Amino acid sequence: MRFDRQRLVAALAQRAEGSARPLAASTLEQHAAIFLQSYYQAERSGDDTSWCPLQDLALLRAAKEEDGRIVFNTDLRAPIGLSLRVFAIALVEFVASSGQGSSSVDFHHLLKGVNSPGVVFRLDEHQLRAFVENVTQGPLRDAVRFVDTSDTQSVVLHRDRVDPYYILDAHEETPIHA
């Protein structure tokens, strides 16, 4: 969520540790520079050689710390165009991957788990809750249930109740934003 260039380089180095050939420090620096330039442009000028279409998504924000370091933040807003249908399909696939028949996933895991809808769609807790509630009250109300008690928050999926045509059937739908 928040990192500086040195932290990015260190994370790339850690990720590359298991590779067949070790990466040189200069290569790691180049990869970090390419990544940052792909998603963030410090200022627009007449020179568009450093422009990348991903910069227009504004996924990275930069701030200068008191010590002069530039720190990048990811912006946590629901992606424009995320429809309830796409979210519902991702939710069903994620919960179903944890077991057969009736499956349950803790809400925190749905928010922060590896390849979870919360992480993939960059949703905060409020946004994720809104999407889950819309799914449970709408298209998959018979198949998905949100359990919200004082000690438990989880999503329960009854895979056998999911209409297989829901995933295949293409309807025009208006994107819903949390």
Structure commentary:
With 178 residues, this protein is an alpha+beta fold. The protein has two domains: 2-74, no CATH class; 84-168, Arc Repressor Mutant, subunit A (Orthogonal Bundle). The chain has seven helices and six strands, in the order βααββαβαααββα. A three-stranded antiparallel sheet has the order 1-3-2. A three-stranded antiparallel sheet has the order 4-6-5. β5 (144-148) and β6 form a beta hairpin. The longest helix is centred in the N-terminal third of the chain and has 15 residues, at 25-39. The protein is elongated, with a radius of gyration of 20 Å. It starts with a strand and ends in a 10-residue tail after the last helix. The mean pLDDT is 81.
Keywords:
178 residues, alpha+beta, Arc Repressor Mutant, subunit A, 2 domains, 3-stranded antiparallel sheet, 7 helices, 6 strands, 16% strand, elongated
CATH architectural label of the largest domain: Orthogonal Bundle
Secondary structure: number of strands: 6
- Percentage beta strand: 15-25%
By secondary-structure content and strand pairing, the structural class works out as alpha+beta
Total domain count:
2
Give a topology summary:
Blueprint: E1 2-4, H1 5-16, H2 25-39, E2 60-64, E3 70-74, H3 84-96, E4 102-106, H4 107-112, H5 117-120, H6 125-137, E5 144-148, E6 153-158, H7 164-168
Antiparallel strand pairs: 1-3, 2-3, 4-6, 5-6
Helix pairs in contact: 1-2, 3-6
